[in-house]
Amino acid sequence: MRTSQSVGQQQAVNMAGIGFRRWAQAVAKGKGPGISAILSGSRAASGTSKGSLPGPYPTTDKEREAAAKKYNIRLADYEPYPDNGEGFGDYPKLPDKSQHERDPWYQWDHPDLRRNWGEPMHWNFDMFIRNRVDTSPSPVDWPTMRKQLLGFIGFMLFMFYLGEIFPAYQPVAPKQYPFDNLYLEKGGDPEKQPEEVKNYKI
Amino acid sequence: MADYREAPLASRPKTLDPNEYFNVSLDQRRAEEDRAALRANLKRQYQMQLNNPHRKELIEDPALTRWVYARANPYSNFRPTFKTSLLGAFFGVVPLFVLYYLFKTDRDRKEEQIKAGTLNRKYSLLT
Predict the structure, then answer these.
(1) What is the ipTM of this complex?
(2) In terms of CA atoms, which chain A residue is nearest residue B70?
(3) Which of A6, A34, A174, A178 matches a 20 to 30 Å C-alpha distance to A162?
(4) What's the rounded Cα separation, in Å, for the pair B9 and A134?
(5) Which residues fall within 8 angstroms of residue A44, CB to CB, at 6 or more apart?
(6) Half-sphere exposure of A20 (CA within 13 A, CB side)
(7) What are the tens digits of pLDDT across the range A46-69?
(8) B81: which chain A residues are within 8 Å (Cβ-Cβ)?
(9) How high is the pLDDT of residue B9?
(10) What are the b/e assignments for B7-30, b being 16+ CB within 10 Å?
(11) Which residue of A has its CA nearest to B59?
């Protein structure tokens, strides 16, 4: 029967050894983040997995199903862009509605963007934010608005054009000066007799 | 207002949308329920991560990652077709030659005028 002190010491040594061994095993297993992942060659599946990024245009039905699942869209709603080589791949074609149209009173996860976490983003999402393009319904339809605007501008331009051709202002003439159009004041020779200038007709 | 017509940048107001009044069949409702279920699942995932007291890092949004990746890598899905080649030619090749021609002729004309002494060189801060 050993004394309690030496048992305590031995236990302390054992604990240190056991603790170190356990630590080394956990690091090699790779369950935690950081260097353990590099040491063991395996990593947690909670980060970005390989099949979650956009891929090429889906050709078979199975690929369509997988793509719809990947983008969190119903299979019936999933519609990829037409495959004409313009670089879209399997990215879904969402309706061209700007974020202005979304409900302002709903509790969005990101209120300034009016978007929830994980929701599929439109290809032109950065164009449809609330600082930029607005597709909300207009008070009158666009053909009417266009007609009214162009009609007004066209009318005003036409009237200004007529005004250039037929000017309407008070009749004016060049200013008439006395003393033979100020012959002496303008530096004419006092010895010479200037020609008579008659600025009136009675 | 009944003759409201849609335009590319003006959508139909909800009160004039016929879907609101006529889409009430069971299939439509089931579709709406499925969509709501997907939304609720995403909401739940987000809330679990948001309110997790042990979380130290930012919440990563996979939809955002996919969008950024898709926008940054269009060339992997690029295929030279008639339309894409035409666009590439019009935006990449034609301006090169057209601008060269325009600038060269304008500069040459100005040079001729300077040599002949006919250029009207006004003092102006704008040109």
Answers:
(1) 0.80
(2) A54
(3) A174
(4) 7
(5) A31, A33, A37
(6) 5
(7) 667 778 899 999 999 999 999 999
(8) 84-85
(9) 84
(10) beebbeeeeeeeeeeeeeeeeeee
(11) A117
What's the pLDDT tens digit per position in B83-102? 999 999 999 999 999 999 99
Total residues belonging to chain B: 127
Q: Tokens for A30?
A: 């790779």
Produce one character per residue of B45-75: b if its CB has 16 or more CB atoms within 10 Å, e if not: ebeeeeeeeeeeeeeebbbeebbebbbeeee
Answer for the pair A113, A129: CB distance below 8 angstroms, yes or no.
yes
Q: Which residue of A has its CA nearest to B65?
A: A53
What is the rounded distance in angstroms from the CA atom of residue A113 to the CA atom of residue A159? 46
CB contact under 8 A, A119 and B39: yes
Predicted confidence (pLDDT) per residue in B26-53, tens digit: 998 899 999 999 999 999 999 999 999 9
Cβ B45–A117 below 8 Å, yes or no? yes
Please tell me the distance from the alpha carbon of residue A29 to that of residue A49, in angstroms, as a whole number: 19
d(CA A116, CA A103): 12
Dihedrals phi, psi of B73, to nearest 5 degrees? -125, 55
- Residue contact A119–B6, C-beta within 8 A: no
Q: Which residue has the tokens 């509790």?
A: A107
Residue A93 CA to its chain's centroid (Å): 18
Distance between CA atoms of residues B124 and B127, nearest Å:
6
pLDDT in tens, A126-180: 999 999 999 998 888 888 999 999 999 999 999 999 999 998 888 888 888 877 7
**Distance separating alpha carbons of residues A78 and A71, to the nearest angstrom:** 9
Q: Tokens for A174? A: 């060049």
Asked if the Cβ–Cβ distance from A86 to B74 is below 8 Å, we say: yes
Interchain proximity B75–A87, CB inside 8 Å: yes
- State the Cα angle at A174 between A170 and A175, rounded to 5°: 105
Strands (E), chain B: none
10 Å Cβ neighbour count for B105? 10
Chain A residues in contact with B73 (beta carbon < 8 A): 54
